[in-house]
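Notes from the pairing session

We agreed to fold both candidates in a single pass and log them together. This is the raw record for the first candidate, unedited. Please don't reformat it; downstream parsing expects exactly this layout.

Candidate A
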Amino acid sequence: MSTSSRRPEFGDGAVAFVMILPAAILFGVFYLWPFINGFWLSLHNWDGFSEPIWAGFSNYLRLANDHIFLGALRNNLIFVVAVVILKNVLGLALALLLNRALFGQSFFRAAAFIPVTMSFVAVGLLWSWIYNPVFGLLNAGLDLVGLGGLKRSWLGEADIALYSIIVVDVWKWLGFHAVIYLAGLQTIPAELHESATMDGAGSLQRFWHITVPLMMPIVFINTILGLSGAFVRNFDIVYVLTKGGPNHATEVVLTYMMNKAFQDGAMSYAAAMGYVLFLIVGLASIGLLALMRRHRLEV
């Protein structure tokens, strides 16, 4: 009995191993090995063609004195804070609106998601036209409502260019985060709101005491998605709109990495930037996950 009872366990284990093996091989070849090899190259000086020369941690020490990199990292942090706050606040507000019984509800839900499906090139061209200081829609609109004094070169002035790009990124991804919030809102039992209404709770009280607590897991998910996107998926929108200009005012770590790697041939130096960025994103994500777990335990 003991021998026969062990055979299915061995068989199940073997089958599971065979099924996992292809995915494990692909993960090792395309993720784990490039990660390890990239870190090894960041400890060298390498231009992509000649033989790598051992440099130790000199590339990482060099980053501490690179004012352009530090400025790009600061822009990344501004980008992250602004994008995460705006995507969560506006995404939840949009989800609350789309969750109401409105005429043409399906149309508005689909329309809110359209920017998510657009390519970064299309978004960049569209907003480059909107922001154009001569014939752009934004400046024309300001003229139309009598606010011509607010007209600016939205992508050409160093003090506002980064914030102009943040607006574009929020506009593109707002529908994505709103859909996640909308799915969370639809899981809240209607009986809770009905009971609170019968007890005399107003709409604002129901929002703070029912909706917000039950939506906290969704808030954490959207925060992590917004955080990772603002750190590691902001290259396209920045490069298409400004290429990091004017005078590095919109430079982020990814655009600076690309410039150093493919224009200056400093592959190892660019790799060191990538691992610094990975460390920052990893620590921030771990912190958010720990905070989420703590919140669940308290609840």
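Candidate B (folded immediately after A)
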Amino acid sequence: MKSFSIKTKLIIFLAGFAVFLSIKDKDILFLFTAAVALISAIIADLTFSYLKDKSLSVSESSVVSALIIGFVLASDNPWWVISLASLFAITSKHLIHFNKKHIFNPAAFGVFLSVIFLGASTQWKGTFLWYILLPAGLYFTYKIRKLELITGYFITALGLFGIQAVLNKVSLINIFGYLSYFFIFIMLIEPKTTPVKPLAKLIFGVAAAGLIFIFIQALARFDSELAALLILNLFVPLLNGIPGRRKA
């Protein structure tokens, strides 16, 4: 595995996790959803690469985005909605840039637009299986140097939901049931659309947890995690301007 890139390892993990969940839940439709998202993303990426460079290539990041879409979008959505979500994701990756870098997390962008404009529903398949996502997620977080981001997120989320639990006289252990581990360890840490400096990463994590908590308390009708992530993506250039040594 040492010769594999971190993105290749993530692809292998997501593919294996998808197969495991489909067997565990006897849900072959889930694999169909992931396949539709993947094929659509590959076609979109091939098209953009040809239009740009007259070459045919598919990036690992596009495969990752497609697999994530397969996990997040509900399997009972029409196939064309899933396909369009992948198209939205890859389009944002190629066209919505700042300083030659794409601004939004592609998978989050694709899913969020499909929910808002196409009425798609989400399922976040396997997101509460912490015993799988926690060890794998910590490995990926360490390899791409986003530990400060995760630290800020967990401290803030546990603090806010902890206070809420105390006020509502609910067991503190229930806090861990509020957390979307797939979002935290697969989407939140995406390297290209998150800050690169330690303090900026910490602030990003704190702000993400805070926004999600606010949206949940406000009973927002949109997906709180995706909305918070996309909003904060807009502030990454500003956060990267914070003084400090770059570590990623």
